[in-house]
Amino acid sequence: AGSSPAASSLQQLCCILNYVEIFGYKTQGWRRVFCTAGYILSCGALLLLFYWRPEWDVWANCIRCSLEEADIVLLRTTDEFQRYTQKKVTWIDLSTLALPFGSNSDGPLVADKDSVINRAVMKPQLKIRCIQVQKIRYIWDFSVKEFKKVGSLEDSNTCHSIHHKFGAGLTREEQKIRQLVCGPNAIEVEIRPIWKLLFKEILNPFYVFQAFTLTLWLSQGYIEYSVAIIILSIISVGLTVYDLRQQSTKLHDLVEEHNKVQVTVCTKSEGCKELESCYLVPGDMLLLDGKKLSLPCDAVLIDGSCIVNEGMLTGESVPVTKTPLPLVESLMPWKTHSMEDYRRHVLFCGTEVIQTKATGRGPARAVVLQTGFNTAKGDLVRSILYPKPVNFKLYRDAFKFIIGLSVIGVFGLIYTVCVFVSHGPVADVVTMALLLLTAAVPPAIPAALTTGTVYAQRRLKKKIFCISPQRINICGQINLVCFDKTGTLTEDGLDLWGIIPSEGSRFQKIHKFPSSTPLPWGPVCGAMASCHSLVVLDKKIQGDPLDLKMFEGTHWVIRTPPTQSMGAPVEGIAILHQFPFSSGLQRMSVVSQKIGEEQYDLYMKGAPEIVSSFCRQDTVPVNFLKELKTYTSQGFRVIALAHKALNLGKDVDVSNLEREEAESGLVFLGLLVMENRLKQETKPVIRELAAARIRSVMVTGDNLQTAVTVARNAGMIHTGSKVILIEAKEPEGSAPASIAWRLAEDCKANTAEKITLEGETCNYHFAMNGKSYQVITKYFYNLLPKILVNATVFARMSPGQKSSLVEEFQKLDYYVGMCGDGANDCGALKMAHAGISLSEQEASVASPFTSQIPNIQCVPELIREGRAALVASFAVVKYLTLYGLIQFVGTALLFWQLQIFGNYQYLIQDVIITLLVCLTMSLTEAYPKLAPYRPPGQLISPPLLLSIILNVCFTIAMQTCGFLLVKQQPWYVAHCSPGNQTVSPTSPGENGTSSGAQSTVLSYEDTTLWPLSSINCIIVAFVFSKGKPFRKPIYTNYVFSVLLALQLAICLFLFFADIDAVYSGMQVTLTLCHVTPQDVILQNKHLWLLIKAWFGYQSNSQHRKWQRMLQSDPSWPPVNAKDFEAKSTDEIYINPTYEHSNE
Q1: Which 8-state DSSP code applies to residue 734?
Q2: Candidate list 298, 397, 484, 601, residue with the active-site label
Q3: Is the pTM of this model over 0.70?
Q4: At the N or C end, where does the chain have fewer CB atoms within 10 A?
Q5: pLDDT for 137-173, tens place per residue?
């Protein structure tokens, strides 16, 4: 079918970091009839196939059409996974509502003319087409011929329009329309019924194949092993279903309590009234009357101010002050007007309103922005319901592996048909052929991949909580870890170290803390006492730890009449208005008034570089930058203070002050120096990771110089390594974007020492701030990979930039771990291959791992367990593959004689040897020391494939020799059966019931091959249970070691016991042992490194390619140079060859 432009339009439907292509289809009756007939004739097999591949279902039942005509849409993700989902287009009927007269005319249905609802209504039917994708509703916009998200206020609204359109509330009719179109304001997570979870689990292709295999074995009377596998499968499925049900219940309980909150809503016609929060719609006007309230939606504050606890979203239980959206006549959308700082006006769903402050116009008011799953909390819940798919070669390779074994099985099937075709009925030939097919593909391979993970998760439980077990294997491949600084590498709290006051544009003598003499009264003391966002809750001062330490240094107290001094010449200070701190602006200020005086004061604190830019330059000391560097280079956190006397006159409303106007022409007061100590565990962990050749990168919101110093102190930057500071600037006027490379001043010229990183030598590190990172990604993207392979410090990074950085590292084929305290790291924690949150707040729910230890010791612990789990998974897969092929070879040889192994022989190999080996092999614990290299991450790799191929060759040679040699013995008889029976391939289920049946089992060939294959299985299990360097030695796994010894003892007893009852029961006569030395050679890391060097093999990882290229580039790294954006090319492409020109 030809594609129409509308059908293949690329739209961003799913807001979980991936784009989705959407295609329109129309159902056809005759196609549906044919498909239904196919379902019946195939006994449901076609239906099962369509369940696995929804796109085939759509292609079979429907024809392509434009999105406008479609009744089914097919969604395809544009990431590497290309996953398909189908959605039915449904209709919302608005004609059922009692709408006001005139709704059927061409006029807008809702008052907000910009609303997508007006453009989506089909008139005069009053119907709206919609689809629901990952809990978000999209409606068809007839004007642009696209599906548009509904459930939010349009971002195009200006500050003025939000105040005027929605400030008085919606009409009752408009509320009803929006309720029907947007759906209820509830984050509903259903507790999935057990039968649904069960069906989803057992319809997995692996279980379907297993069911086919077991049916075949049961039909052949192979009951014991089949029952054992069935019991194990039931336990496995039961545990999985139980875990999924528990997770579903936990998530349901987490969100359910916020779905039914009583709120006060104002409407235009009916005034204010209480209603249940599930009836809220975007545009509603909420009244915040001072009571504690858990917010049921996202809302923008338009009047009054609030103090909220955003711990649920950020992981930090620090009260945050929210200010009203300014009423300004700006044409810019309200978010753009507030820049990246729009969050200071927004009350997020799931956060708790602790206090509200009314204005003269009445209680605090807010306009509902987003409802249901469109909210901040809804987004968090959706990220848990629909996690980012794990892209790991292991799982893709396992599938290819099973396909490869299936191909071998098909050859076996053809061979069996050729051998048996002239010796028995067709049913027997088919049965034998299928038996050999299933022998080659052990049904336990996919399950075996999870055993190592299950045991690792159980060991991790004491220290690290995991919500995504499949990521444990990926942790074994991590080669780069990003760390947040404050609260992760350093202690959570800051200690006040000293204050350096400034007077007459000169720094004065430092006042150190703690001090016997109190800080004298003056503007500096006034700034420390009032320029903060602290609040008194339950008679306790709460707020940002930095603010708290600063305020405690003044020895003042906070009272709800205003802040009071202890022994100072002023009675107290009233804080009248606050311009809150934000990471985007890097400053905060307050308007205050001394009690009993008419004059108003403005105090500011923030990043020194920012604060000094707002001050009159004649008040800033000449040696400001030098003094600042003195302290930041020692790892201190430095905050600048400034002051301005405001002449506002009497009875002025300070809440209407323009921030830009108020924050200008300030007097510089001095520097506040705070100490942020490294956690004692930080240095040893960074050293351990470096020894294991795992890169450590710091990603922080703090000052660049402080971050570089902490990185040096922590050992991320080795002594003697150069630090190159990168400063990038956006285009200004006619000047293009520029990037400057400057050597940090504390780097000495004679740095001879080199540090080794993953086989590449490197004695320099790049450091930059978030602003420079943003400019580089926008204007110098071709330089980004070169910078990232040696960048160690990223300072002043916003949460969005942290996520972007993790993604860019992943593009360079790094396996990235992210460790943060959850505060502003949520996005990066979700984006990384392994995100480890040190916070146990609800925000960490989105992180795959949550550490119970509040320091970075959890990182090497997780990597150790990941490596052990990965190696264990590989070992079990290798073992099961060989076990299948050992049985396959033995069975194929016996089929040549029209014979087969006996049931009890299969039973001992399958249950007593293989099943127990698979269950206990992964119990070996992780090796305590991290090796300086990672385990192989691919199943289809030369060492592993060669290991299997050589073992299979050895098995074929050994079993063929045994098979042929036994025929040369003087005592050899063709068949051991009594009398001259006709040999037919009677099913093994009849073993022992007739001598004819016994003749297919009881033979010298069988008796030779069975001991050889059994001993082979035991030896292979021993060889593949390799210990060092990723797991402890095999003898530390007591259960497995004892088991192997017992298995060997039982086998040897059966071979040499010479007890007729045993032999007749086992169906063996009497007769012979081997070692696989090739594996000792194949698993030798140093040997493979020599082979790689001999053949000139080099890693294909992007970061390794860049490292090799940069090593041979004499012009890299640039030092004390400046480059400009090239105007000639617009493309953003990573150029593999770098010309050092003015780029």
Answers
A1: T
A2: 484
A3: yes
A4: N
A5: 999 988 888 888 888 888 888 888 888 888 888 888 8
